Amino acid sequence: MPAEVSAPKYTSAKDKEKALKSILATEKADKTKTLIASSLAVVVLLSFMGVLDNMGSLPLPFEPVDWFIFAALAFLGPYGFYVSTKERHTREIETRLPDFLRDVAEAGRFGMTLADAIVVASSGRYGRLTPEIKKMAAQIEWGVPASEAIRLLAERVKTPLVTRMASIIRKANDAGGNVADVLSMVSHDAKESILTQEERNVTMSTYVMVVYISFFVFIATILILEVQFLPKMEEAGRSVNDAAVEMRLTSIPGVNIQVSAIAEVSFIFLLSVIVHAIGDGILAGVIQNGSIPIGMRHSFIMLLCGFVCLRVLFA
């Protein structure tokens, strides 16, 4: 006998509509716009402090370029890690989706309707997918059709895999027939898609590691030039200048070392590290997930490492 799903008793249609709205109102708001606005505000503030420091208006503890690096970190870090966290949660949801579809298919083979099968399967544990499944079951219990509840699930999760699976299940349910067989095929297809994506991630992680290694090799090269080469050049330049003064010459013919340009060369090295950190990080994100926002997290890590190496440890 199919299991019966008992819905709560409604005193009126108005109470039913109010209860349904309270369920739908439990959606977590997308904080992307708020996060971007906050990050931009911090970027503007730090950039303004860098301008004041460059003008000498305030006795600030860092150099102007440091404030602009802080501004870049403030923009790259929060948004990059937020998008990465959302992507990881989405991946965890997609990983458990085939298990849920398989359980719904098994319940459907016992003669349950799609709505009853979803409610029964919602008692299982599916990791991060569990809250969404329970929300969908609650919507069904409050009178939302199964197809509409599945559509709302796809809108909440908003991933290509979930959207595709939800579309197939809705069309199969609207067409009638044996939905359990469709659910089994969809579950198998979702499992294959996830395995393919995991294999691709393992392969691409090697290339991401290559990007990180090349960046740190570049930093090591810059540090060698900063610590060994430039100080020797500055020392040689000062020796030449002192010798020219003793000989009462403005400069020694054939020997011209601009000591004042060494600071500019060091600054160019720092700018090159900043450009490499941002560019290599975005490249790593595109290689890993085909996403620039994911790359902003890598850019934040590389830029922070470059700042610590060049401006803190070996300043």
Describe this structure in words.
By secondary structure, this protein is mostly helical. 79% of the residues lie in helices and 0% in strands. It has 10 helices and no strands. The termini are far apart.
Provide the succession of SSEs: HHHHHHHHHH
Q: For the record, give the distance between the C-alpha atoms at the N and C termini, rounded to a whole number.
A: 76 Å
Q: Compute the number of helices.
A: 10
Tell me the structural class. Answer: mainly alpha
Form type: elongated
Largest sheet: none
Main features:
2 domains, 10 helices, 0% strand, 315 residues, 79% helix, mainly alpha
Give a short synopsis of this structure:
Helices cover 79% and strands 0% of the residues.
